[in-house]
Amino acid sequence: MNKQKIALVTGGTGGIGTAICIALADQGRKVIAGYFPPEQEIAEAWQSKHRDNGYEFEMVACDVSDYEASEKMLHDIESTIGAVDILVNCAGITRDKTLRRMTPEQWDSVLRTNLDSAFNVTRHVVEGMSESGFGRIVNISSVNGQKGQYGQANYSAAKAGLHGFTKAVAQELATKGVTVNSVSPGYVKTEMTDAIPEEIRDAIIQQVPMGRMALPDEIAYVVSFLTDDRNTYMTGANLPVNGGMYMS
Question: Which residues are catalytic?
Fold first, then answer.
């Protein structure tokens, strides 16, 4: 009998991360949601809410921008739950400013959280995945990593970097039964985008041919497709989910 596969979603308590956790659980995975340590109270409330809805998510606190902390997180997961079979690198932040006003801290914090974290976490799962002959790695990028965005030089650079990281690692693991792909959402309806002033939100939506933002479930569906056991021949790909906002 095949064992239940273990999925780790960094940034799992966020808007998109939550939808991904639910989709993977519905796929039959044992899901571990990662969260930023200072947000423990929020994370525990999140876990309780979803437990009431029938989802028994495991939780793990980690600053994934820190290499040693990420190494410890994976060691702890493996010793208490088991080796990670599916990794979704979803942790991310924004620190928006035009380049002439951007501080080194705003640049560094976004690059560390959005790009370095993918290395920090992925580095510690690839060996186990390769040895077992199965692995699914999905990196959550962004439409702005493809087209750029005014005031987001840091975010756009980090998300574009995920594309190169995805393609390089996909080549390294292609013969090991491990696929590595990325998903590039456009603007997604979450608490964060709901907080954007209405006139700015309307201007964003006007740029989208479909005339609306994505729902988190629509992003999660694509992630669950990429992590499916049967999806064995797609690797190094980027799947854009942006309502036609950017077509390549």
Answer: 155
